[in-house]
Design a protein that fits this description.
This protein has about 150 residues and is mainly alpha-helical. It has two domains: about 1-90, no CATH class; about 90-150. Helices cover about 85% and strands about 0% of the residues. Helix 4 packs antiparallel against helix 5. About 5% of the residues are buried.
C-alpha cells in the first residue's frame, strides 16, 4: 500500500511539473505547437520504453489493427484536455487549475466506477468533493479579501 501512495504522490508532483512545462512551452510556441511538442516527446519516450521492455511487436500493423478503435480516443481526449489545461493555467494559478482538474477526475472516476464496476454510489465521496470545492472557494475568498485590503 505504501508503494501505491508513493507512486501516487510522485505522479502528482510530475503532473504539476508537466503542467508548468507545458504552460511555458505554449508561451513560447503557442498553444497548439506547445501541445504538439508534448505529444511528440511522449511518443518518443513511449517508443523507447516499448523497445527497452522488448514489446516492439506492439508497433506492428497487425497488432495496432486488432486494438479496438475506441481505445484510441484516449489520445484525442488527452490532447483536448491538455490544450484546455494550458489555457486554463495561463488564466489562473497552477494550484487552482490542479484542483479543478482533480475535481473533474474525482467526479469522473465516481461515475465510471458506478458504470463499469457496478460500484454503488456513495454520498460520502460526493461530500469529499464538495469539501474540496468549499476549500478552494474559501481560499479564493481570502485572497480577494487580502487584495482589497492592500488596495
Amino acid at each position: 500500500m505504501a508503494a501505491y501512495i508513493f507512486v501516487a504522490v510522485l505522479l502528482g508532483v510530475l503532473n504539476v511539473f508537466n503542467k508548468m512545462v507545458n504552460v511555458k512551452a505554449s508561451e513560447y510556441l503557442g498553444n497548439t505547437n506547445g501541445t504538439l511538442i508534448n505529444y511528440f516527446e511522449a511518443s518518443i519516450i513511449s517508443l523507447v520504453i516499448l523497445l527497452a521492455l522488448g514489446e516492439a511487436h506492439e508497433l506492428t500493423p497487425s497488432f495496432v489493427k486488432n486494438v479496438p478503435s475506441y481505445l484510441y480516443l484516449g489520445s484525442v481526449t488527452g490532447l483536448i484536455a491538455l490544450i484546455f489545461l494550458v489555457i486554463g493555467t495561463k488564466k489562473s494559478t497552477v494550484m487552482v487549475s490542479t484542483i479543478v482538474v482533480l475535481i473533474g477526475q474525482l467526479v469522473t472516476s465516481i461515475v465510471l466506477d458506478c458504470i463499469f464496476f457496478n460500484e454503488n454510489f456513495s454520498p460520502l465521496k460526493l461530500l469529499g468533493i464538495l469539501f474540496v470545492i468549499a476549500g478552494m472557494a474559501f481560499r479564493e475568498k481570502i485572497i480577494k479579501k487580502s487584495e482589497n485590503a492592500d488596495a
